[in-house]
From TrEMBL:
Its EC number is 1.3.99.-. Pfam families: UPF0093 (PF03653). Binds 1 heme b (iron(II)-protoporphyrin IX) group per subunit. It comes from the Bacteria. It is a multi-pass membrane protein. GO terms for biological process: protoporphyrinogen IX biosynthetic process. This is Protoporphyrinogen IX oxidase. Pathway: Porphyrin-containing compound metabolism; protoporphyrin-IX biosynthesis; protoporphyrin-IX from protoporphyrinogen-IX: step 1/1. Its cofactor is heme b.
Length: 184
């Protein structure tokens, strides 16, 4: 059965990969916009108002035209792949991947909430906190890629330790960058 559906499966897989890349690019970029938008608060008027108006427009456009549609198409293509090859649901690694995907979806909707907050001039996180938040998307991406590529060959204990190590390294790098920026 899967042999006759294989060409369709490959199309779904290609679409899935393209739109996951687009989704991740949107998530990475929206967080950069959040950071710059927040830092615009430190600018004198009228520069502050001009920048914030521009960031609101850029955030809305990125979110509505790139990030959210890419997320929806990624999820639909992934669901199509699982429908065409439901044997994937028998693999433990797929359930781990899906758990990380659920985490990434939650992350996406929290970012959507931040878009709305910033539009309403609510700044609940500072630029340092947003830099740390941005790196969580990196951790999700790394975890998903490693689970998919290594599948059952992955020793979960070492994988978890590795992800935590990457997270720690990213946090240290963000802190060092903050210190570097403060010295300038």
């Amino acid at each position: 059965m899967i042999e006759t559906l294989l060409p369709y499966y490959q199309y779904f897989k290609a679409v899935h990969i393209v739109f996951v890349i687009s989704w991740m690019a949107g998530l990475f970029y929206i967080l950069s916009l959040f950071i710059y938008h927040t830092e615009a608060n430190d600018k004198p008027e009228p520069e502050k108002s001009i920048l914030q108006k521009q960031f609101i427009k850029m955030e809305a456009t990125l979110w509505k035209i790139i990030a959210t549609p890419a997320m929806i198409i990624s999820v639909l293509a992934g669901a199509g792949m699982l429908t065409l090859n439901n044997a994937l649901l028998q693999a433990n690694w797929m359930w781990v991947k899906l758990a990380f995907v659920v985490g990434l979806l939650i992350y996406h909707f929290i970012c959507q909430n931040i878009v709305k907050q910033l539009k309403n001039n609510q700044f609940k996180l500072n630029s340092f906190q947003l830099r740390l938040w941005r790196e969580l998307a990196t951790i999700f991406m790394i975890a998903i890629v490693f689970v998919v590529i290594l599948k059952s060959a992955l020793n979960w204990i070492y994988g978890l330790i590795g992800i935590m190590g990457v997270a720690l390294a990213i946090m240290i790098a963000v802190k060092l960058y903050k210190n570097y920026r403060l010295k300038k």
